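Page 37, continued from 36.
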């Protein structure tokens, strides 16, 4: 199975909005967007992000289908 890092999705699943996460983490929304979501963060930055989110780095990875689209089927299995 192929996977993709989707920081925006991980933040929205846990905090609802990027702004809510930024406020929780004591960061500016623009910095989160530029440096983490739209940037190319290092492993160290991803680890720091996950520490602030209260999750593991592996929680940022989502399965993708053959066309490269993120699969949502794994979420439905965990919602029951």
């Amino acid at each position: 199975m192929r996977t993709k890092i989707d920081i925006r999705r991980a933040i929205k699943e846990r905090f609802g909005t990027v702004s809510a996460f930024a406020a929780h983490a004591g960061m500016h929304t623009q910095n989160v967007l530029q440096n983490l979501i739209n940037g190319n963060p290092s492993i160290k930055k991803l680890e720091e992000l996950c520490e602030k989110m209260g999750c593991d780095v592996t929680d940022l990875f989502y399965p993708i289908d053959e066309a490269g689209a993120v699969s949502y089927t794994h979420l439905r299995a965990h919602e029951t």
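The radius of gyration is 13 Å. Flag for discussion at group meeting. The longest helix spans residues 43-53.
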